[in-house]
Design brief:
Largest sheet: 6 strands, mixed
Mean pLDDT: 98
Low-confidence stretches: none
Distance between the termini: 31 Å
Radius of gyration: 16 Å
Structural class: alpha/beta
Number of helices: 11
Helix content: 40-55%
Length: 223
């Protein structure tokens, strides 16, 4: 399960050491960690990271298929997490040390910055290959955070981007060696800790207003 630590003014949220899929309990734990970050006072920033082969493989499809009657509510809870991260009133950095797929990739896009391992691991939106269309909120998030041609290729072809290719496409900000992923993310976050607070939260809310509105639409979240 996710765990939250603090390194000086940078909170580090470790998502776990498995596939870090969005099980309801996992979503609740991440939400509680974000509560702690948001309620803290003074300079601060947030890094999310993971341990092992995966950063996150996205939706917990096994749980979802076993609880099909809760499909809509589950999607709403995932949208809530994406919207919250996108608008969090601190600078956020995702440290992608392993595979980052589907909703896990969308979660990374909801951060302000991304650092990815250069030599191994893929960033991918596989929905076209697994026949699961993007919800309106997910599509809005992706298109708000990626250049149009990059979003087009990533969404329609399910292309798997390695770290260096992801950096060249503007999906991630830095591609570094395995042992530098987390430390580089913390370094980027530390440089921005003074920006925590209402102003940066308002800037994000206005910058991403259309995507946030789509993600927070609970009347027809599935489209």
């Amino acid at each position: 399960m996710p765990s939250l630590d603090r390194h000086d003014n940078v909170f580090v949220l470790d998502l776990g050491d498995g596939e870090n899929r969005f099980h309801p309990d996992w979503l609740a734990a991440v939400g509680a960690a974000l509560d702690e970050v948001e309620k803290a006072e003074g300079p601060r920033a947030l890094v999310t990271a993971a341990t092992g082969k995966f950063y996150s493989n996205g939706l917990d499809l096994d749980w979802l298929f076993a609880h099909a009657d809760q499909h809509r509510d589950y999607v709403v809870s995932v949208h809530e997490l994406l919207a919250r991260m996108l608008s969090l009133p601190v600078i956020t950095v995702a440290a992608l040390q392993g595979h980052t797929f589907a909703a896990g990739a969308m979660f990374s896009l909801a951060h302000d910055f991304r650092v990815m391992r250069a030599d191994r691991g893929y960033w991918c939106l596989p929905e076209a290959d697994i026949n699961i269309p993007f919800t309106p909120g997910m599509a809005a998030l992706i298109q708000a955070r990626l250049a149009p041609q990059t979003a087009h290729k990533a969404m329609l072809t399910a292309h798997r981007y390695g770290g260096s290719e992801a950096a060249a496409a503007g999906i991630v900000d830095r591609a570094v060696s395995e042992d530098a992923v987390r430390s580089t993310a913390i370094e980027i976050a530390q440089a921005q800790v003074a920006k925590a607070g209402d102003t940066v939260g308002t800037i994000k809310a206005r910058m991403y207003a259309p995507a946030l509105a789509a993600l927070r639409d609970t009347t027809d979240p599935l489209g």
